[in-house]
Amino acid sequence: MIQRRNSDLDLEERFTRESNRLNEKELDRIANAYRELLHSIGEDVDREGLRRTPDRAARALEFLTQGYRQDLDEIINDAVFESDASEIILVKDIELYSLCEHHLLPFIGRAHVAYIPNGKVIGLSKVARIVDVFARRLQIQENLTTQIAESLMRCLEPSGVAVVARTRSEFLSLLKD
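RESULT FIELD:
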């Protein structure tokens, strides 16, 4: 069994891509929505501590939703290779950050992705990038793991795939639906 920990992967590459950026017009629309939201709850958006908050929040949302602007084929980028490997390949402890689609609040955790090759393998760093593509969208954990597994099934056609995500959402105890 081949194992690799996420700490070995290039985090800088995973999180800084110019192609994942929103244009300025879209960022302004999001910042204006945050201004309106703050105003709607009774805040003074011109007070010192909040003056730049809408712009910062817009950039944060841009980052947390960059998966919508990423192309899986571009990320995989010919990193699929013919191989006679037949033992399970496991990439564990892939950090993930996502937004709950029900409350728009963050959940964080780690994913563990395993597959049994069937003639093809993928570069291990690409597995973490695939996790990011789906985590950086409005999401629920159940769909996240399915989307990761299905994408690996499509590109590798392995004998099997398993994805486990262990996430924590501190806000659940605060929200009583």
